[in-house]
Structure formats: structure tokens, C-alpha cells
Amino acid sequence: MTTPAKLYGKDLSEYEEIDVDELLNKLSAEEINILAKEVDPDDSFLPPSQRCSYDCEKDPTGPLNRKQLIEHINKQAIETPDKPELKPYIPGTVRGKKWIPPPQPVKEQEANEQIAIDLGDEYEQALSSATQDEIIDLAAILGFHSMMNQDQYHASLLNKGQPLGLGWDGITKATKQKIFPMEPPNPSDPDETIQKVEDDEPKYIDLNWNNIKNVSHDKFDKLFKALEKNTHLETLSLANTGLTDREAEKLAELLEKNDTIRVVNVETNLITPSGIVRLIKSLLKLKSVEEFRASNQRSQVLGNKIEMEITQLIEKNPTLLRLGLHLEYNDARHRIATHLQRNIDTKRRLARLAVTSS
Questions:
Q1: What is the pTM of this model?
Q2: Do 162 and 133 form a contact (C-beta atoms < 8 A)?
Q3: Rounded to a whole number, what is the distance in angstroms from the first to the last CA of the chain?
Q4: What DSSP character marks residue 194?
Q5: E strands of 193-277, at which residues?
Q6: What is the DSSP letter of 18?
Q7: Which of 15, 62, 134, 271 could form a disulfide with 275 if both were Cys (CB 3.0 to 4.6 A apart)?
Q8: Transmembrane region positions (predicted)?
Q9: If you average pLDDT over every residue of the chain, what do you get?
Q10: Going by DSSP bridges, is the β-strand pair 206-208/235-237 parallel, antiparallel, or unpaired?
């Protein structure tokens, strides 16, 4: 049962059947004007002039003259008398209660004050003869981070020697940015690699198409078709090649037929969450892939439903050892990490049994 609406403690249910338009038609123009000033129409599409309750009935005196308006305002401000003071101002006298600042807190001991600590003759002699750099190294070892800056601390830990010009009062300057050379473009030729895959060369076990731009759909189709009969390729790297769900479906069909591929990398592509689920589901057919990477796709967030579906598929896979995928929810991350660790332990145990039996 719903609670009836009330306004100022009065029940409004008796006014629900009243026709508002009929009431407005009975009002005069003056009454409508008064009502319009009392009610603010909460409509952002109305101009402010129609929403404002102020209504000036004076006729306009002419166009706006900004300079004349400012001069009039200044003149009116000068001619307006000041408010009379209850107590006239007299130089040197205090009117009213004088403000007294609160007492300052007791200052801490000066930094140069010495604290008497008996360290023994051996330690006192060693510290008195130590240089400033040695004292800084000792402070870094003891973990006194507030006594030094970051450059001094890291130099002490790495035993590189203290930077020149930096003492206890030294200022840390910005570290110069290290310039690394640009990564060279991928020298792999798609047509040549496709031919090697079709020929099933025994030494060709790693296919790397990473960062190759503008790979056509036909080349992907030829590659996946050739991989269906290949028995030597173990690593398939297709990161940042513009893969979409169309190619992901072809790749999933390939993984359900090829049992020699161990590593699949499709990071930084345009695969949707449903496409990633399709790829992970295809790993359950032959259970030969040990490492699968598919992070940094167009859709950064997979969502709870997709992550739980991926988690259930991973928990059914007994051979997957490493997974490169960004998961948002802790439950999915924890369950997948636990299952992958269980797979790694199982593989180690089987390898150990194989060695002992041989």
C-alpha cells in the first residue's frame, strides 16, 4: 500500500482529479501574472528572461551606453553618503575589543642541539672521523629516508658514489630522460612466412607478425588455412596487427585443429570481449596451448559476466600455464591465478616422475 502524497501535512489525493487547465482558464490576467512570479518553471530550454520572476514595466530609455552607465554608477557611489560610525575613528586609539593572537606552540629543539648518547669510544671515533658521504650511506642503510633525497638514497644502495654537489641540504634535480632508439620495424614478410608455413619447414617454429600494419583479410585467411596442416610451428605472435572478430573466429577454428601451437599472442588488437571468450573456449578442444595473451584490446573493460565466463573456461583447461589478460574483478583474478599455479605444479610433478622413472 502506497503512502498518499502530502504537502505541508495536507493530503493531496483529493486534488488528483481536478483539471488544472480548467482552473487556469478561470484566472484573470493579473492573477496569472502573480502566479507566474511565484512559480519557477524548471525548464532549461526556456530563456532566462522568461524564467526570471522580475518583471520591469518601464519602457526602455534607449540603446545601452556602457560608458554612460559606468559614469552614472560611479557618480551615484560618490554622492551616496557613508553610513555613520557609532564611534568616530581617532588615530592611535582602539575601537572595540582588541584581538590578541593565541600563544605560539613551544618550538622544538634546535637541529644543532646535541643529544648525549653513549655509543662507546669505538663508534664515536668512527663517526667523528667519517666523511659526509659515509654518513649519508650509513643513513640509507639504516633507513633514515627523511635525512636524504632520492638520488642520495639510491646511490647509497647501489654503491655508485654520492652525486657531486649534493650534501645534507642538496636539492634533487630532475633526472635526465634516457633516450632509447626507436624499435625497428618488423622485418618479417607476410607472404614469405605464409609460404614457410605451407611448406611445413621443420626449423620454422616461431611466426612473428607483431606490429605489421595493413595486413589484408586474405593473408590472414591464407595463414590460418596453412596452419591447419602445419606440424612444426609452436609460437604464433599476431600482436598489433588489426585483428578483428572475423579473424578471431578463423583463429579459433584453427586452434581447434592444430595441436602443435604452444603460444598464442593476439595483444593490442580490435577483438571484442565475446571474441576473446571464443578464443579461450577453442583452447579446450585439443588442450595444447600453454600460453595465451590477449590484453589491451579496443574494449578495455570486459565486464563481470565476461570475466566469470572466462574464469569458468580457464578452470576447465588443464594445460594452460600463462594467461595475459587484464581482469578487473578480484574473484576472477584469484581463481585464475590459483588454477594456473595448479597446472604448473602438475606439470612439474609429471616431469619429475618422468625423470625418476627413466
A1: 0.54
A2: yes
A3: 79
A4: H
A5: 206-208, 235-237, 263-265
A6: S
A7: 271
A8: none
A9: 84
A10: parallel
